[in-house]
Amino acid sequence: METRVHTAAVHAGRRDLRDLGVHAPPLDRSTTNPLTSLQVGTDSLDAMAAGGHPQGSSVYARLHNPTVARWEQAIARLESADEAVAYGSGMAAMTAVLLAAGAVGRHVVAVRPLYGCTDHLLQSGLLGCEVSWATPDGLAAAVRPDTALVVAETPANPTLRLLDLRAMVAAAGGVPVLVDNTFATPILQQPLQLGVTWSLHSATKALSGHGDVMAGVVATSVDRAAALRQVRILTGGLLDPQAAWLLHRSLPTLPLRVEAAQATAGVLAPRLADHPAVATVHYPGLPGADPLGLVGTQMAGPGGVLAFDLHGGYEAAAGVLKAVELLTPAVSLGSTDTLLQHPAGLTHRIVGDDARDAGGITPGMLRLSAGLEDVEDLWTDLAAALALVSDA
Ligand SMILES: *Cc1c(COP(=O)(O)O)cnc(C)c1O
């Protein structure tokens, strides 16, 4: 039956469990699979080499793993996608999309700011991409006949700037669009519904949710998923079954965790905006912060991540990071605990000054990913740390 998101998060990818007579998904760690006949092996190999699914046997774990496949089905359901393909990290997923899109040695259009390593992967020349960095308004003009794909992120990391995905897809004019959906999660945003070709997640973040799994996943169409699986068979970058099992275990609570983090961010954002040590707060839920009106339409809510600039610049940001006792001074996001990090010094250090400036990443900026603690405890901790740098 058609189910709503909370129900889907609990039940997705578990259809075969009743017939198996088990309640928790089996964790299959086999690297090879005994064949019932040679025919089963060759049929399955042919199907998987073409990017399809096994015909009776997984054959070898780089080709297919049932534990991983269950989680992929669940993510596809939550993204309203045909299929999803999982990887050992978000960056492995990003690399796989670039390879599958034929971006190696070709032209790519990218919109800043992007996650620091995505920016650096494109900029470094490692894959031989020729990159045009476009503003949202300049996108249509930047696209060429030889453009392999458009890469963008909304909400953007770390400035939380939102992009209108429908407008972006229109501006791309038929060139496929990759959107990093990590910050929104499929609970708040389903890019494929808006015409986007690939929706990518660092599942290391909210999808895992507990700070103990590295993973990546891409939701897309049947054809694009086949191309991704072909790349994955050839290059590896696999998601470990144990990690997939943990990800699937975390999925039923994803909507609850996203909603709780969002509620907390929604309380902290205006308090930070009123604080004398804070110059600016970047959070799409604040008045005036969503000029395109995308919260409530493209995105179901503003999410659980915010950033803020301190009047005291780099020194003040370093001081707050050092002073917090409850908040965890650490990169990453979407964990059970609230994480606070310094984009210019950490996640976006690698991209270089120009890209940081172009992306609006200032030396006094901190990024906060709300966890599941009591918001008043978080505010007590944050306010005490901010008071120290206000006096300085
Ligand atoms: C963390 C992150 C990535 C990279 O994912 P890994 O799992 O660390 O490889 C990509 N995009 C965004 C938005 C991220 O936050």
UniProtKB/TrEMBL annotation:
Molecular-function GO terms, alphabetical: cystathionine gamma-lyase activity; homocysteine desulfhydrase activity; methionine gamma-lyase activity; pyridoxal phosphate binding
Keyword vocabulary terms for this entry: Pyridoxal phosphate
Cofactor(s), by name: pyridoxal 5'-phosphate
A Pfam family: Cys_Met_Meta_PP
Catalytic reaction equation(s): L-methionine + H2O = methanethiol + 2-oxobutanoate + NH4(+); L-homocysteine + H2O = 2-oxobutanoate + hydrogen sulfide + NH4(+) + H(+)
Superkingdom in the source lineage: Bacteria
Cellular component GO terms, alphabetical: cytoplasm
Record InterPro entries: Cys/Met-Metab_PyrdxlP-dep_enz, PyrdxlP-dep_Trfase, PyrdxlP-dep_Trfase_major, PyrdxlP-dep_Trfase_small
EC number: 4.4.1.2
Enzyme class, broadest EC rank: lyase
GO BP field: cysteine biosynthetic process via cystathionine; transsulfuration
Keyword Hydrolase among record annotations: no
Family: Belongs to the trans-sulfuration enzymes family.
PANTHER family: CYSTATHIONINE GAMMA-LYASE-RELATED, TRANS-SULFURATION ENZYME FAMILY MEMBER
Protein known as: homocysteine desulfhydrase
Source species of the chain: Egicoccus halophilus
Gene from which the chain derives: metB
